[in-house]
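Annex B. Sample input.
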Amino acid sequence: MTVSTAGLADKIVAAVQSIPGVIELDGGSHDEIVTQLFGRRIRGVRVNEFERVEVHIIVDCGSSVAAVAEDVRVAVRRLVRRSVDVCVEDVIDLRELVAA
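Annex B, continued. Sample output.
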């Protein structure tokens, strides 16, 4: 990965985390959805310099899953000039997390 890929992945994470209804990014069941950088891994975002960008998220059940996924796609698309795939890995009740 290049330095620009690292910066891009960080910008994608910031954009996704700012969207209401996104609880967190998710690396998949085997933590395979990552952008591997020098000395660190960014979970939930797979950036390949020549292909599409994948973003895997967990959504709050109080939000419209389709709307949140589309908001993520639009936000990431503003940052990249390639296809963006958004995968909703899970939908959970944020209130249950807070109460736990």
